[in-house]
Amino acid sequence: MGARVLLLLWRTWQVRNNLTHDSEKLSFGGSVMFLKKYWIELCSIRQQQEFCPKGKSVVADSLVLTRKGKCKEVSPGWSAPEPGTIKVNVDGAFDQGSGEGGIGAMARDESGRVVFTAWKYMDRIADAEEAEAWACKEGLLLAADGAIARRP
Questions:
Q1: pLDDT value at residue 25
Q2: Which residues form the RNase H type-1 domain (predicted)?
Q3: Diameter over CA atoms, the chain
Q4: Which of 30, 54, 64, 93 is the most buried (most CB within 10 A)?
């Protein structure tokens, strides 16, 4: 509940700033739709961060959206690689309407520390399987090109 209130306050401040500075006018209905979509996005990502001395922190960790639009806590699905090795995870995304997509890769060591991350916009993709294939290829190329070898 607290995270939603913070999100609502943030959007209210944004609307107020736009009105004050004669910027884009934001409608009530548009703001409601924006907040709903933004909440779904926030609930569908997993955030991990180290302690920040400035006091900034994640509002909620390991959240997933349920059918009723509420978030619930889930256990992490990532498993660590063998000691002394690196694990590369990749993913591809595809928008059927536009034919656009994106790919991403992330490498972590046995302690879960991020070794490298990469992403790429793809302007012409046929389907989700092609996006996944490109993600696999790019992840392997990054590993082979020495992105992992530069590990501190």
A1: 76
A2: 89-146
A3: 56
A4: 93
